[in-house]
């Protein structure tokens, strides 16, 4: 029976190899954490990060902008008219907002304020409206204090995933088409915003599987309820304008350089680890342990009888030679011995 030696866990693993294994796992973990971010793969499409690429014209010199803002939007149709700067308009809006109810679907009583906010958003360029807007209001603040932000312009950086097109009925603005987009911000994550705008910017497709980053500037109206898989949910409804994200000149190059550097360092570390393990494993002498047989502490009493039985059952070469040399009647002679009697004396 082969005896097996019990060794503790990790006895055959040298300390240096274990340390190298941990370092390799650490490098792989860092690369995984970095690679699962969507911005990590932006170099494939030659796009920069959405957070660092959006540029405000008021904060950047003109020579640092790649293209004028007007070239990024299809065409801004400005409709001169009164807005929130007019006292009478502001009073009319406040009166219309009194009947607006949160956590309810869009109703007929909401349409007066709806079209008034739509008209306000078209009375000035989007760049001017953006300067007057609140920046990225937290989603929780809108939920907890909707009256504080109702009718106020808000700027949102949206990751749009769904865009619909409607043909509204007769309205004060005489609009033939109105667009509705659903998207989320870095703050809201899985909780979407619903934004309505009269003009579709360049790069925005229509459908239920859209993927694009845009900046929305508009007025908050209410928390609107909607059905999602037979579950009633709520989303903030805003009315305003939409524009593409402005790209900075050096942001894409900086992002590409950073990504390439990280991939190069990670690849070198990983290849070094794999090569060291392979070379060290080939040079290390392999120890072959000879099999040992365990002997009993005491021998049985009939061990000789067993050996005799084995010898009779398995004829050896010497025994075969002796049997071949014996006469045929050797057994008979051996079975009848000759008895010699003494001769009688005279």
A few lines on this structure:
The protein has 346 residues and is an alpha/beta fold. 36% of the residues lie in helices and 17% in strands. It has two domains: 15-40 and 254-283; 50-249, no CATH class.
Give structural notes.
The structure is a single chain. This protein has 346 residues and is α/β, with parallel strands linked by helices. It folds into two domains: 15-40 and 254-283; 50-249, no CATH class. The chain has helices at 15-35, 50-53, 69-72, 87-97, 111-121, 126-131, 139-144, 146-149, 251-283, 303-313, 317-325, 330-335, and strands at residues 134-135, 153-166, 178-184, 193-197, 212-228, 231-244. The protein has a five-stranded mixed barrel. A hairpin with a 2-residue loop joins strand 5 and strand 6. The two termini are 76 Å apart. 16% of the residues are buried. The model is unreliable at 46-53 and 55-74 (pLDDT under 50).
Report the helical percentage.
25-40%
Structural class: alpha/beta
Succession of helices and strands: HHHHHHEHHEEEEEHHHH
Summed over residues and divided by their number, the pLDDT gives a mean of 75
Main sheet makeup: 5 strands, mixed, barrel
| Strand line-up in the sheet with most strands | 2-3-4-6-5
Number of strands: 6
Radius of gyration from CA coordinates? 46 Å
Poorly predicted sequence stretches spanning 5 or more consecutive residues? 46-53, 55-74
Using the alpha-carbon principal axes, give the shape.
Answer: elongated
The N- to C-terminal Cα distance equals 76 Å
Number of helices: 12
Tell me the strand percentage band: 15-25%
**Number of separate domains:** 2
